[in-house]
Design goal:
InterPro entries: TPR-like_helical_dom_sf
Organism: Streptomyces lavendulocolor
Keywords: Membrane, Transmembrane, Transmembrane helix
Radius of gyration: 21 Å
Strand content: under 5%
Order of helices and strands: HHHHH
Protein name: Tetratricopeptide repeat protein
Amino acid sequence: MRAKLTYFVTAAVLVVYFVLVGSRGVMLIQQGTALTVAFGCAVLVLPVIGVWFLWKNTQFVTRANRLAAELEAEGGLPVDELERTPGGRIDRDSADAVFARRRAETEDSPDDWRCWFRLAVAYHDARDTPRARKAMQRAIALHEGRPARG
């Protein structure tokens, strides 16, 4: 719940920022000189990119949460079997061992979105966020019946 609240607060702050920056871009364009119009257009590009990025990330999170809920309903969510340090951090060797099992499971069933979801969780536990995201994107694509990209 805390992660959701943080996400929504951050998204709201970003939207306010996009509106403020966009209004400055519009004000520059309204000045009417060649220089201010050029700067105004350049400034307007930033909120457009930001809104697109925020939208794509929100879609990703929503779809991943939908998969998690479906997997939980099936009883297929990965069990947290990781060892922890006294400080509560995941033990690296434990995460690597779980990752190896998840990778083998995914290699055996490369078209099963459930395996890719569990692999994404294993990547995340091993602190490999870029690969975790790619694995989750593949799980989402397989679940939606879209071709999964390499």
